[in-house]
Amino acid sequence: MTTASSSRPSSPDAPQRCILITGGAGFIGSNFVHHWCAAHPGDRVIVLDALTYAGNRSNLATLDGNPNLIFVQGDICDADQVAALLKSESIDTVAHFAAESHVDRSILGPGAFIQTNVVGTFTLLEQFRQHWLTQEQPSDYRFLHVSTDEVYGSLAPDDPGFSETTPFAPNSPYSASKAGSDHLVRAYFHTYGLPTLITNCSNNYGPFHFPEKLIPLMIINMLLGKPLPVYGDGQNIRDWLYVEDHCRAIDRVMTAGAPGETYNVGGNNEVKNLDLVQTLCDLVQDMAPTFGWELPVASPQELIQFVKDRPGHDRRYAIDATKIQRDLNWEPEETLETGLQKTVAWYLSHRDWWQPLLSEEYQAYYSKVYT
Q: For residues 290 and 348, what is the distance between their CA atoms, to the nearest angstrom?
C-alpha cells in the first residue's frame, strides 16, 4: 500500500472500479476495505481518512504491499483535497463511512459531529457531483452513504422494527447529524440525479472496534479487572450486526441496489444491554485460558456496575431488513452467539492492537462519561 495519489492504470488489466472509501481506517470502514480488496481484487481502492482518535492505520497493516490500494490522510471537509483526489484517481464509486459516531462524545461536544457528518457529507456530495458532471454523468457511478438506525429514534417494546419508511426522529446530537446527512444524500439524488444509495444499519461489532464502544469496552475491562459500567437499569435493547455481515450487505447494495434507494441492514439479534454484558462475561471467562489469559477476578460478573443513565438514552432499536433480503437476497450469516465468539477471540489475541489505544486522552474521556 502506498500513501500518495497516483494516476489510474491504463493497461488492459485496469481495475473495473476505482472506489474511494472514506473513513477507511476506522472500525466499519477498515473492515470494509479488507472485504472489498478480497471480494474485488481487480478494483483500485483509495482510502481517505483523517486519522482522528478512532482512525488507526494499523487496521490496514495486513494490506500493505497491495498495489491496487493507496492510503491518503485527509479531511472530507477539505473540498480542494476531495476534488483533486476524485480527479487524479478517476473515482467512479464512493463508499462513505467517515463520521463521528459515538453518542456519548456527541453529548459532550456536538460541534464536531455537525462538522464531519453534515458539512463533510455535503462536501463529498458536491465534489462528487461536480466530478460526475465533468464525466458526462455516467450511469454506473455510485455514491453510497453508510448511516445508522438511530436516525429513526426509539421504539416501544412491542413496536415493529424500523423500516425504510419509518419517519426520522433522532434523539441525540449524533443521530441528528446523521439524519441531516441522510437527507442531503437523498436530496442530491432527487434534485440532481446523482446516483446515490443509503444504508441504515443496526449496532455493529467485531474486530477493530474502538474501546469506547460497549462490546470492546466490556471485553477489555474484564481482562484488566476494571468495572463494567452499565447505563441505567441495563434494559435498553439493541439489534446487533456482525461487521463482516454488514460489509457483505454494503457490497450487495453497491453492486445491485437501485440508485436513490435506502436499505436497512440488521442482524436479527435484539438483546438487552445487561443480557449482552452477562453473555460476554461468560464467553470471556470460558475463552480466556485458551488464549493464555488469567483473569484478575474469579467471575467477571462481579465487575458489573450500574451507572447514571445517558441523557436522552433511546430505549430500543430494531431493524426490519425485509427489503434488502427480498430485493437483494442478503441476510446475515452470523448469529449473535457465533459473532460474539469471534469478537471475543479477536480481542483476546490482539492486545497489541487495543492496549496502545488506552491513552491518557481516552482515560480522561472515560472518567467524564462514567464517573
A: 9
140/255 Cα distance (integer angstroms): 10
- State the Cα angle at 45 between 39 and 51, rounded to 5°: 115
pLDDT greater than 90 at residue 7: no
Residue spans of alpha helices (H) in 40-91: 79-88
Q: Which three cell numbers stand for residue 305?
A: 456496575
The single-letter code of the amino acid at 174 is Y
Whole-number Å distance between alpha carbons of 348 and 236: 27
- pLDDT above 90 covers what percent of the chain? 94
Q: Please tell me the distance from the alpha carbon of residue 72 to that of residue 46, in angstroms, as a whole number.
A: 7
Q: How far apart are CA 324 and CA 327, in angstroms?
A: 5
Residue 9: pLDDT over 70: no
From the number of C-beta atoms within 10 Å of its C-beta (0-12, 13-18, 19+), residue 158 rates as exposed
Domains of the chain: 18-209+241-268+315-334 (3.40.50.720)
CA distance 191 to 187: 6
Residue 141 sits at φ, ψ, to 5 deg, of: -70, 150
Quote the Cα angle for 26-31-36, to 5°: 125
* Catalytic residue IDs: 149-150, 174
User: Contact, 5 vs 85, CB < 8 A?
Assistant: yes
Contact residues for 139 (Cβ-Cβ < 8 A; gap 6+): 195
Q: What is the mean pLDDT of the chain?
A: 95
Confidence of residue 337 (pLDDT cuts 50, 70, 90): very high
Rg of the chain on CA atoms, in Å: 20
Instruction: Look at phi and psi of residue 137 and say left if phi exceeds 0, alpha if psi is from -120 to 50, else beta.
Output: left
